[in-house]
Design goal:
Structural class: alpha/beta
CATH architecture: 3-Layer(aba) Sandwich
Number of helices: 9
Mean pLDDT: 96
Distance between the termini: 23 Å
Bound molecules: NADPH dihydro-nicotinamide-adenine-dinucleotide phosphate
Length: about 250
């Protein structure tokens, strides 16, 4: 893996204890960063993740809250204010899908996906940006999806949030550019995590067949791209979406 040095920097990774987020948190820890990994409620997964981090876990802290809940996000930032002076990096990775065709989509499935994926990105970015503006430095990386660009059947709610994250990021990148803060997206294709392993085998085969590289990606392959956009070296990349899709 390409190596970056994030020593002395703090990275918040939402949904940073499982799947792609765990790989991102691990990559930051291995690169010297202080990592604040958040999760929604799967305490067991969070504790196993911390355990797996072993020797580097003294730079890892875990926080459990709902990114879609404004008050909980505000309380989280107030809490970390006491221990962390600056936040250099925010990775908006937490995301869910509740697939269903529009005609059958439950109101709650629409709302929950919007709240977590899109409102969560706003909630987390708002307070991070305030800190970054003061420090005149920051890197925000948000995880979108090809679903937002192409639309997938049964994912109208999810696709809308992922397209929204791209638009949100483009606007945000313009607002904060003067303060040396960049905001970008990563769009992972089909990545081997619990997020997709629950899908029927035939559907997985069909998806695999649409990928020019003919395989699913790994969380580590997403993490290395996040680290690039979060690095000081990526100072001239902003408002962009980096596709990590095997050519999808
Ligand atoms: P996982 O389902 O494996 O992990 C999701 C993480 O997000 C978990 O840590 C979960 O916490 C956390 N989370 C979920 N809801 C909330 C919430 N309301 N508040 C706080 N944290 C929450 O997902 P992946 O790793 O597969 O996906 C990560 C991101 O990548 C998502 O944004 C997804 O849309 C995107 N993506 C994934 C692709 C894939 O193929 N896997 C493809 C394209 C994009 P807990 O453990 O407590 O449940």
């Amino acid at each position: 893996m390409v190596s970056y040095d994030f020593t002395g920097q703090t990275a918040i990774v939402t949904g940073g204890t499982r799947g792609i987020g765990a790989a991102i948190s691990t990559a930051f820890l291995k690169s010297g960063a202080q990592v604040i990994a958040t999760y929604a409620g799967n305490r067991q997964a969070a504790e196993s993740f911390a355990l797996a981090c072993g020797g580097i876990s003294d730079r890892l802290t875990l926080h459990c809250f709902d990114v879609g809940n404004y008050s909980e996000v505000e309380a989280f930032y107030r809490q970390i204010d006491e221990s962390v002076k600056t936040v250099e990096i925010l990775v908006n990775n937490a995301g869910i899908r509740r697939d269903s065709i529009v005609g059958m989509m439950a109101k709650d499935d629409w709302q929950r996906v919007i709240d977590t994926n899109l409102t969560g990105t706003y909630n987390m970015s708002k307070f991070a940006v305030q800190k970054m503006m003061q420090a005149r430095y920051g890197r925000i990386v948000s995880i979108t999806s090809p679903s937002g660009r192409m639309g997938f059947e049964g994912q109208a709610n999810y696709a809308a949030t992922k397209a929204g994250i791209v638009a949100f990021t483009k606007s945000l990148s313009r607002e904060v550019a003067k303060r040396r803060i960049t905001a970008n997206c990563i769009s992972p294709g089909f990545i081997e995590t619990e997020f997709i392993t629950g899908l029927p085998a035939e559907q997985l085969d069909a998806y695999r067949g649409t990928v020019p590289l003919k395989r699913f990606g790994t969380p580590d392959e997403v993490a290395v791209s996040v680290l690039f956009l979060a690095s000081r070296e990526a100072a001239y990349v902003t408002g962009a979406t980096l596709e990590v899709t095997g050519g999808l």
